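Q: Focus on the chain.
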Amino acid sequence: MTRHLDLGCGAKPRNPYRRDQLCGVDIAPGNGGDVVWRRANVALEPIPFEADHFDSVSAYDFLEHVPRVLPLADGSALRFPFVELMNEVWRVLKPGGLFYASTPCVPHPTAFQDPTHVNFITDRTHTYFTRPELMAGMYGFRGDFSVVRVLRLRPEHDYEPTHASLSRRLRLWQRARRGACSHVVWEFQAHKPAGV
Protein backbone atom coordinates (compact mmCIF):
# COMPACT_ATOMS: atom_id res chain seq x y z
CA MET A 1 0.00 0.00 0.00
CA THR A 2 1.30 3.47 -0.86
CA ARG A 3 0.78 6.38 1.55
CA HIS A 4 0.63 10.17 1.20
CA LEU A 5 0.75 12.83 3.94
CA ASP A 6 -0.65 16.35 3.49
CA LEU A 7 0.76 18.89 5.98
CA GLY A 8 -1.34 21.80 7.24
CA CYS A 9 -4.24 20.35 5.31
CA GLY A 10 -7.24 21.67 7.26
CA ALA A 11 -10.41 19.71 6.57
CA LYS A 12 -9.52 18.86 2.96
CA PRO A 13 -6.20 17.06 2.53
CA ARG A 14 -4.86 16.65 -0.99
CA ASN A 15 -3.36 13.58 -2.58
CA PRO A 16 -1.39 14.85 -5.60
CA TYR A 17 0.29 11.51 -6.30
CA ARG A 18 -2.96 9.56 -5.86
CA ARG A 19 -1.57 7.18 -3.26
CA ASP A 20 -3.68 4.36 -1.80
CA GLN A 21 -3.88 5.87 1.69
CA LEU A 22 -4.23 9.58 2.49
CA CYS A 23 -3.14 11.04 5.84
CA GLY A 24 -3.57 14.60 7.06
CA VAL A 25 -1.89 16.61 9.82
CA ASP A 26 -3.10 19.99 11.07
CA ILE A 27 -3.55 21.97 14.28
CA ALA A 28 -7.29 21.38 13.87
CA PRO A 29 -7.67 18.46 11.45
CA GLY A 30 -10.91 17.25 9.96
CA ASN A 31 -12.40 13.88 10.65
CA GLY A 32 -14.19 11.14 8.82
CA GLY A 33 -13.80 9.63 5.41
CA ASP A 34 -10.92 7.37 4.56
CA VAL A 35 -8.32 9.89 5.76
CA VAL A 36 -5.99 9.02 8.65
CA TRP A 37 -6.00 12.23 10.75
CA ARG A 38 -3.41 13.42 13.27
CA ARG A 39 -3.41 16.62 15.29
CA ALA A 40 -0.09 18.45 15.62
CA ASN A 41 1.50 21.85 15.21
CA VAL A 42 4.23 20.63 12.86
CA ALA A 43 5.76 24.10 12.81
CA LEU A 44 6.92 23.36 16.37
CA GLU A 45 6.36 19.61 16.91
CA PRO A 46 7.57 16.48 15.12
CA ILE A 47 5.35 15.01 12.43
CA PRO A 48 3.34 12.37 14.35
CA PHE A 49 4.24 9.39 12.17
CA GLU A 50 7.17 6.97 12.20
CA ALA A 51 10.22 7.23 9.94
CA ASP A 52 10.13 5.90 6.37
CA HIS A 53 6.32 5.76 6.45
CA PHE A 54 5.27 7.79 3.39
CA ASP A 55 5.80 7.52 -0.33
CA SER A 56 5.03 11.23 -0.63
CA VAL A 57 4.35 14.36 1.44
CA SER A 58 2.73 17.63 0.34
CA ALA A 59 2.43 21.15 1.74
CA TYR A 60 0.04 23.51 -0.06
CA ASP A 61 0.21 27.14 1.10
CA PHE A 62 1.75 26.02 4.39
CA LEU A 63 5.53 26.63 4.42
CA GLU A 64 5.06 30.40 4.52
CA HIS A 65 3.45 30.01 7.98
CA VAL A 66 6.42 28.15 9.52
CA PRO A 67 8.82 30.48 11.39
CA ARG A 68 12.45 30.48 10.31
CA VAL A 69 13.95 31.44 13.67
CA LEU A 70 12.58 31.42 17.24
CA PRO A 71 14.47 32.23 20.44
CA LEU A 72 14.13 29.75 23.29
CA ALA A 73 12.05 31.05 26.20
CA ASP A 74 15.13 31.72 28.33
CA GLY A 75 16.91 33.49 25.46
CA SER A 76 19.88 31.11 25.65
CA ALA A 77 19.65 29.79 22.10
CA LEU A 78 17.66 29.74 18.87
CA ARG A 79 15.43 27.18 17.19
CA PHE A 80 15.06 26.90 13.43
CA PRO A 81 11.49 25.57 12.96
CA PHE A 82 11.59 25.63 9.15
CA VAL A 83 14.80 23.57 9.12
CA GLU A 84 13.32 21.25 11.77
CA LEU A 85 10.20 20.74 9.62
CA MET A 86 12.30 19.92 6.56
CA ASN A 87 14.19 17.37 8.69
CA GLU A 88 10.85 15.86 9.68
CA VAL A 89 9.59 15.70 6.09
CA TRP A 90 12.77 13.87 5.12
CA ARG A 91 12.47 11.57 8.16
CA VAL A 92 8.92 10.37 7.39
CA LEU A 93 9.58 9.84 3.67
CA LYS A 94 10.68 6.45 2.41
CA PRO A 95 13.94 6.33 0.45
CA GLY A 96 13.08 7.81 -2.93
CA GLY A 97 9.91 9.43 -1.53
CA LEU A 98 8.65 12.70 -2.99
CA PHE A 99 7.98 16.06 -1.34
CA TYR A 100 5.66 18.48 -3.13
CA ALA A 101 5.16 22.06 -1.88
CA SER A 102 3.42 25.12 -3.30
CA THR A 103 3.97 28.43 -1.52
CA PRO A 104 3.82 32.19 -2.22
CA CYS A 105 7.14 33.44 -3.52
CA VAL A 106 9.04 36.71 -3.21
CA PRO A 107 8.88 39.28 -4.86
CA HIS A 108 5.15 38.79 -5.58
CA PRO A 109 2.92 40.78 -3.14
CA THR A 110 1.06 37.55 -2.24
CA ALA A 111 4.10 36.51 -0.22
CA PHE A 112 3.67 39.54 2.08
CA GLN A 113 -0.03 40.44 2.18
CA ASP A 114 -1.16 37.81 4.73
CA PRO A 115 0.01 38.90 8.22
CA THR A 116 0.49 35.25 9.22
CA HIS A 117 3.19 34.74 6.56
CA VAL A 118 6.51 34.64 8.42
CA ASN A 119 8.66 32.55 6.08
CA PHE A 120 9.51 34.26 2.81
CA ILE A 121 10.50 31.82 0.07
CA THR A 122 12.51 32.85 -2.99
CA ASP A 123 13.49 31.09 -6.19
CA ARG A 124 16.69 29.97 -4.45
CA THR A 125 15.48 28.90 -0.98
CA HIS A 126 15.34 25.27 -2.08
CA THR A 127 19.16 25.16 -2.42
CA TYR A 128 19.40 25.02 1.38
CA PHE A 129 17.70 21.60 1.34
CA THR A 130 18.78 20.09 -1.97
CA ARG A 131 21.88 18.69 -3.60
CA PRO A 132 24.54 19.73 -4.22
CA GLU A 133 24.49 22.64 -1.74
CA LEU A 134 22.45 21.35 1.25
CA MET A 135 23.37 24.67 2.88
CA ALA A 136 20.88 24.29 5.75
CA GLY A 137 23.30 21.76 7.24
CA MET A 138 24.87 24.67 9.12
CA TYR A 139 21.50 25.09 10.89
CA GLY A 140 21.00 21.42 11.73
CA PHE A 141 19.47 20.04 8.53
CA ARG A 142 20.25 16.31 8.32
CA GLY A 143 18.17 15.45 5.27
CA ASP A 144 19.19 14.94 1.68
CA PHE A 145 16.90 15.93 -1.18
CA SER A 146 17.44 16.33 -4.89
CA VAL A 147 15.34 18.58 -7.11
CA VAL A 148 12.77 16.95 -9.36
CA ARG A 149 11.25 20.34 -10.27
CA VAL A 150 11.28 23.93 -9.04
CA LEU A 151 9.10 26.40 -10.92
CA ARG A 152 6.89 29.45 -10.50
CA LEU A 153 3.13 29.37 -11.16
CA ARG A 154 -0.21 30.94 -10.34
CA PRO A 155 -2.25 28.84 -7.86
CA GLU A 156 -5.40 29.13 -9.98
CA HIS A 157 -3.42 27.06 -12.50
CA ASP A 158 -2.59 24.49 -9.85
CA TYR A 159 0.45 22.52 -10.85
CA GLU A 160 0.28 18.91 -9.87
CA PRO A 161 3.30 16.63 -10.04
CA THR A 162 2.95 15.49 -13.62
CA HIS A 163 5.19 16.08 -16.56
CA ALA A 164 3.82 19.14 -18.31
CA SER A 165 3.79 19.39 -22.09
CA LEU A 166 6.32 21.63 -23.80
CA SER A 167 3.59 24.20 -24.56
CA ARG A 168 2.48 24.29 -20.89
CA ARG A 169 6.08 24.71 -19.71
CA LEU A 170 6.52 27.57 -22.20
CA ARG A 171 3.34 29.31 -20.93
CA LEU A 172 4.53 28.95 -17.31
CA TRP A 173 7.94 30.36 -18.25
CA GLN A 174 6.31 33.35 -20.01
CA ARG A 175 4.08 34.05 -16.97
CA ALA A 176 7.05 33.87 -14.65
CA ARG A 177 9.00 36.32 -16.83
CA ARG A 178 6.05 38.77 -16.70
CA GLY A 179 5.84 38.48 -12.90
CA ALA A 180 2.38 36.90 -13.13
CA CYS A 181 3.32 33.82 -11.07
CA SER A 182 2.77 34.28 -7.35
CA HIS A 183 3.85 30.84 -6.11
CA VAL A 184 6.84 28.57 -6.34
CA VAL A 185 6.49 24.81 -6.53
CA TRP A 186 9.05 22.45 -5.08
CA GLU A 187 9.16 18.80 -5.97
CA PHE A 188 12.03 16.98 -4.25
CA GLN A 189 13.13 13.36 -3.95
CA ALA A 190 14.42 12.04 -0.60
CA HIS A 191 17.78 10.28 -0.60
CA LYS A 192 18.64 8.00 2.29
CA PRO A 193 19.74 4.48 2.89
CA ALA A 194 16.87 2.09 3.53
CA GLY A 195 15.93 1.89 7.22
CA VAL A 196 17.52 5.22 8.29
